[in-house]
Amino acid sequence: MNRSSSAVNDISIVLAGEAGQGIQTIEQLLTKILKFDGFYIHATKEYMSRVRGGTNSTSIRVASKPIAAPLQRIDLLLPLDKKVVPRLQARISEKTMILGDSDVVGQIPQMVHIPFKKMAMEIGNQMYENTIALGVILGLLESDIQVMKKYLAERFYTKGEDVVAKNISAAQYGYERGVILKRNEKVLLAEIVRHDSSEEIVVNGTEAIALGAVAGGCKCIISYPMTPGTGVITFMAKHQGDFDLLVEQAEDEICAINMALGAWYAGTRAMVTTSGGGFALMAEGVSLAGMLEMPVVIHLAQRPGPATGLPTRTEQGDLDLALYAGHGEFPRIILAPDSLQSAFSLSRRAFELADEFQVPVIILSDQYLVDTYYNTAAFDLFPRKTRQYLVKTDDDYQRYRFTSDGVSPRGIPGKGTGLVGVDSDEHDEAGHITEDFAMRVKMVDKRLQKLVKIKRESPQIKRKESESAQIIIVSWGSTNMIVREAVTKLEMNDVFHIPLEQVYPLPGNMGQFLEKARKTIIIENNATSQMGRLIQRETGHHFHSSLLKYNGLPFGIEELIDHLQATLRAEE
Fold first, then answer.
1. CATH node for 464-571
2. What is 202-377's CATH number, 3.40.50.970, 1.10.10.10, 2.60.40.10, 3.40.50.11740?
3. What is the pLDDT of residues 474-483, one digit of tens each?
4. pLDDT digits (tens, 9 = 90+) for 235-292
5. Domains of the chain: which residue ranges?
6. What gap in Å lies between CA 237 and CA 249, rounded to an integer?
7. Using CA atoms in the order 215, 220, 226, 229, what is the torsion angle rounded to 10 degrees?
8. CB 406 within 8 A of CB 449
9. Whole-number Å distance between alpha carbons of 260 and 479
10. What distance in Å separates the CA atoms of residue 275 and residue 536, rounded to the nearest whole number?
11. Under a CB-based contact definition with an 8 Å cutoff, are residues 258 and 294 in contact?
């Protein structure tokens, strides 16, 4: 049974079974140990909307170089349930190595039988099955056994010496089985080179967004729980004492966004986190922010709709919702981070943009991004201080004073002698309600004038090689890193990838690059090419081809390569 893959410098491991079988425990132990042992890891989840049962899976990619995208193929599969193989059949090939206990999962073709249950009982308890499985995988990967022992000792320290000793014994038992299996079966899973990972961190997208918000000066988060956005408020609640945060679970989403607007009115940077259904309820509050010219930051973690849809899966289906939510016409900014680094930096920047331009700023993530984690460089915390945009009011202060760029000096109650008047009705410069038609036109123009400044200061496409590219591929948000690796592996000099992270306003010079290309391709995790239609609306450019996926799963690198090759071949 020679599953040699000596030319491969990464391996795709999938752990799968029912909810409640301990998949997350194996995942957390395995990824942490591999990180400390100098491997690059990338992990993401696919799980059903239920507490127990179903079929959940975790895909862990282990590599010699930094990685930030998932693979479709499975090199090593650990099924904990009979339903796993039928569900993952499309990803399994004749080269996939399957490790399982036939007494539990039944007889599966090409599976190597390992009696995990029997081995655990020899240790003293069936609960050690997963620790044995962990050891087998680490043995196959030739991980440092001392790193494994040290981490297990630290992980189970609070449970007592006996639990620590038995977990280490179980892991070592499995490790030795993995080494024997590797030698007897002549298995070479991958040639992975270690590196010094001591300066790296391992966080997921949820944590990166939350930490970015804190770095951006956020002192208040108010939300109503909704998967997959809930993790942000949960993380911030856990650390509210560390960062001096006010964390409040509101009775509903309408209350949440209105409380956040109240916090900004009082001078406190605040945010809400939600998903599509919750954001739909916030639409009136978004419009209120537009009329009040009140900053607010909204984290919108996308999942497939309409309605409840697939609540634990991923999709980029809420771009239109973020663009058009709220009645009336007013400017907004939409950011879509594509990596852990940009999840941190864009979340941080969202508060600066909201405060500077006095508009709603929406951070558009998705289930894939928030649940994905890998080792990355520590986040850049400089400058440590946030810029202050508030002014001290005087006696003749006017909250909506006309300015050349539409941005009025923003004061708050109690800071100065002036009255800070705001009104949800149309108003004059002082914030007093008005039905004067001329004033109405001036105020609408004032609010929209801010968009001119926002566009002027927005990121532009700068790379010179894009000017001569024959083929341009555009993606946005969480698909960017997947597309980037796929394009790199295509090894085509005339292909240029434009990864959008600020999705509104778009780069002002985008149209000129697209029009010069012989072929343009848009790649999105939705059914109707929402970004493609936005770009057409803004630039007039209609993409020649689109690659769309909307089954609830993110793109895999291999499927993108196949799609792109087929698309480019069809043109020849």
1. 3.40.50.11610
2. 3.40.50.970
3. 999 999 999 9
4. 999 999 999 999 999 999 999 999 999 999 999 999 999 999 999 999 999 999 999 9
5. 10-184, 202-377, 464-571
6. 10
7. -10
8. yes
9. 30
10. 26
11. no
Record the tokens describing residue 504, joined without a space.
């509104």
Q: How confident is the model at residue 128 (pLDDT cuts 50, 70, 90)?
A: very high
What span, in angstroms and rounded, lies between the C-alpha atoms of 106 and 126? 18
Cα–Cα dist 391/163, whole Å: 59
Tokens standing for residue 381: 């915390």
Phi–psi pair at 526, nearest 5 degrees:
-155, 175
- Chain-centre distance for alpha carbon 518: 32
Residue type, 258: N
Compute the distance between CA of residue 143 and CA of residue 197 in angstroms, rounded to an integer.
14
| CA–CA dist 81, 236 (Å, integer) | 35
Calpha distance 445→262 (Å, rounded) = 25
Give Cα separations from 305 to 225, 311, 312, 316, 551 (angstroms). 17, 8, 11, 10, 11
Listing DSSP states for 394-454 in one string gives: -TT--TT---TTS-PPB--TTSBSS-----SS-B-TTS-B---HHHHHHHHHHHHHHHHHH
Task: Name 299's bridge partners.
Answer: 273, 363
